Amino acid sequence: MEALEAIMTRRSTRRFQDRAVPEELLGKVIEAGRAAPSGGNNQTTHFFVIRNRDILDKLASMAERAFAAMEITENTYKSTVHSILASRKGGFVFHYGAPVLILTANRIAYGNAIADCVSAVENMMIAANALDLGSCYINQLKWLNENEEINAFLETLGLMKNERVWAALALGYAAGESGLPQRTPLPRTGNPVTYID
Predict the structure, then answer these.
(1) What is the pLDDT of residue 153?
(2) Angle at Cα 109 formed by Cα 104 and Cα 110, nearest 5°?
(3) 3-state DSSP of 140-179
(4) Which residues, other chains included, contact 21 with Cβ-Cβ below 8 Å and sequence gap of 6+?
(5) What 3-state class would DSSP assign to 29?
(6) What is the pLDDT of residues 95-135, one digit of tens each?
(7) What gap in Å lies between CA 48 and CA 165, rounded to an integer?
(8) Residues of the chain with pLDDT under 50
């Protein structure tokens, strides 16, 4: 798939098959993330590739508890409100049950931490689409990146004390017989462009 086609047809997948991603494809997705630009070419993004179902389930349970305990105010971001309400209802799985969850972490005091992690995730989403895999950008662990319980658990997986998760990616085969992601482009109704000549 050509680069522009992979970009223009990328859509988020929120339902996944219970099917492992082959090592070769997973490796290509991760390498695409590692090839992303970084501020000053620092290359300090730390990738965590989680395939262990028990760990995925534990992270989902911890996130659900954390969101359920949060207060909703008039200034709460609408997607966070969704996560809070879904968690209070029960059964909220922030990673949509994907067989792979890739966390991107970076240093707390580094000014490009979020930008570097998001660049890596975007590269991985485009690569996933080109490789016929579904993916979805995951914000929830960024919103919870000061949660002591979650950080302590992530430290057991290798997160350094001076790191936080800034972006994540759910990855796998899309639910449905073909396993292919939805690729019909959505109309753009925002993101204005101003040309200055």
Answers:
(1) 98
(2) 60
(3) HHHHCCCCHHHHHHHHHCCCCCCEEEEEEEEEECECCCCC
(4) 29, 99, 100, 133, 171, 172, 173
(5) helix
(6) 999 999 999 999 999 999 999 999 999 999 999 999 999 99
(7) 10
(8) none
pLDDT of 185:
85
CA dihedral sign of residues 160, 37, 190, 13: negative
Instruction: Give the CA distances from residue 197 to residues 26, 78, 144, 194, in Å, rounded to whole numbers and listed in that order.
Output: 43, 37, 43, 10
Give buried/exposed letters for 77-106 (b at 16+ CB in 10 A, else e). eeebeebbebbeeeebbbbbbbbbbbbbbb
Q: Identify the CA nearest to 172 among candidates 94, 102, 69, 87.
A: 102
Tokens standing for 4? 């522009």
pLDDT value, residue 14: 97
Is the domain covering 3-172 a CATH 3.40.109.10 domain? Answer: yes
Structure tokens given for 176: 């449905």
Closest to 133 measured CA to CA, from 14, 25, 4 = 25
**DSSP three-state, residue 108:** coil
**Vertex 59, ends 53 and 61: CA angle to 5°?**
100
